[in-house]
Amino acid sequence: MAASDTLDWTAMMRLARSLNLPGVCEDVRSDGQPCLRAHGRLWLWWDCDHNAPGFRLPAGEREFLIASDPETFFVTREEFEFNHVLARPDRISRRWILGNLSLSWRALAPRAFVRMFPGEGPPVPQFADY
């Protein structure tokens, strides 16, 4: 990705909004960092301390991502206890972002909603309930 293609929070929000998923709203985390919530739960955020986007992941996937591409994916002490990962915005692909956001949005959706659209999207991963 060229330096001019580096993502910032505005570009991340625009990318997430391009999915046109219902139940997504802008908010601010308790630490004051901007975020998007899906169905009332943390979905995508910007870590201002590390200038990097944060993502939810199914349990066990974070270690795989970090091991497979440590130059792109990392975790901070603050995020360690959750199934979250941060990504360097100059290295992450838009395709990965869109795939992750689609999958995590579906995982956060109420089960009744998922039942209404059984074939519409990726399988529903199980996230820890926190």
In short:
The protein is an alpha+beta fold.
Give me the secondary-structure topology.
Elements: H1 9-17, E1 24-28, E2 34-38, E3 41-47, E4 52-56, H2 61-68, E5 73-74, E6 84-87, H3 94-108, H4 111-116
Antiparallel strand pairs: 1-2, 2-3, 3-4, 4-6, 5-6
Strand order in the sheet with the most strands: 1-2-3-4-6-5
Top-tier CATH class: Alpha Beta
Mean pLDDT across all residues, rounded? 85
- Envelope shape: globular
The helicity comes to 25-40%
Structural class: alpha+beta
Q: SSE string, helix = H, strand = E?
A: HEEEEHEEHH
State the total count of DSSP E strands: 6
User: Would you identify the CATH architecture?
Assistant: Alpha-Beta Complex
- Computed over alpha carbons, the radius of gyration is 14 Å
Largest sheet: 6 strands, antiparallel
Distance between the termini: 34 Å
| Percent in strands | 15-25%
The tally of domains stands at 1
The total count of helices amounts to 4
CATH topology: Aspartate Aminotransferase, domain 1
Low-pLDDT residue spans:
none
